[in-house]
Design brief:
Length: 259
């Protein structure tokens, strides 16, 4: 009998994927104790059904409970037939995932790729519905703020975030105690009824974006001045942050790598 060709062989292969999800029903990305729904658990369960064995998924960011993603990056290793390309795996995986999670892109990963440690920049967007009357269909998609926000004032304050700073005021380190991060850009824009904040950094602290948004909202409504926001940053005291914005307005939109 002739040996099977490489195309026919089932070998362990590592893949990289971009995942979108509606985080409303989940306690964040990271797998938690048994029975608590998470994005990672759903992905690993779907892969386990395909591989008939446990599969570990690595993620670029540990989004919190209720946070959404348009560009979460994951990687995993699975025994997959050489004759079946990444497209077949993507279709099979999506067929086993719930409707609020989808793999939108899947390719073979470079050797040694790690979605978290290799990431060079992450970008989040936060959506505020800035109208007098709430829109019920958007209640899990944006934070409703009835009072008109001054986007120019918010942008002047947001400029203070750019650069390398200690952001202990706005969150805590997920591992260790280093709260210094580099913010590459931070800007607000108004699109019809929405006021949207986009912030990109090398990494983020836990609850950092939501706390920054809550603080800048205070500037936008006139409750804080730009100087108040500056004082809050340099204090490095968690109690000096404005109330964190709710999770349902936050989206992980992209993770960038050197390639």
């Amino acid at each position: 009998m002739e040996p099977a060709s490489k195309v026919d062989q089932t070998v362990a292969r590592t893949f990289r994927a971009i995942v979108q999800y509606d985080g409303t029903a989940y306690n964040g990305f990271q797998r938690q104790r048994h029975g608590v729904p998470s994005i990672q658990a759903e992905l690993e369960d779907a892969l386990a059904r395909l591989a008939d064995r446990p599969i570990r998924v690595l993620g670029a960011g540990r989004t919190d409970t209720g946070v959404h993603a348009l560009g979460q990056v994951i990687s995993f290793t699975i025994e997959w037939p050489g004759k079946h390309g990444p497209g077949a795996l993507q279709r099979a995986l999506n067929a086993n995932l719930p409707p609020d999670i989808a793999v939108v892109e899947l390719v073979e990963a470079e050797p040694g790729f790690h979605p978290r440690f290799d990431a060079r920049r992450r970008c989040y967007e936060y959506y505020i519905l800035n109208v007098p009357v709430r829109r019920p269909l958007l209640r899990w998609r944006a934070w409703h703020v009835a009072r008109t926000l001054d986007v120019d004032r918010m942008n002047e304050a947001a400029k203070l975030l750019i650069g390398v700073h200690d952001f202990a005021t706005f969150g805590r380190a997920p591992v260790g105690d280093n709260t210094v991060r580099e913010v590459h850009s931070a800007i607000w824009r108004r699109e019809d009824e929405m006021v949207i904040f986009r912030i990109c950094a090398n990494a983020f602290l836990q609850r950092m974006v939501r706390s920054v948004v809550g603080s800048l909202k205070m500037v936008g409504t006139g409750g804080w001045s730009k100087d108040d926001f500056a004082d809050a940053i340099v204090s490095c005291e968690r109690k000096r942050s404005g109330t964190a914005a709710p999770a349902h307005g936050l989206y992980l939109v992209s993770v960038e790598y050197n390639n």
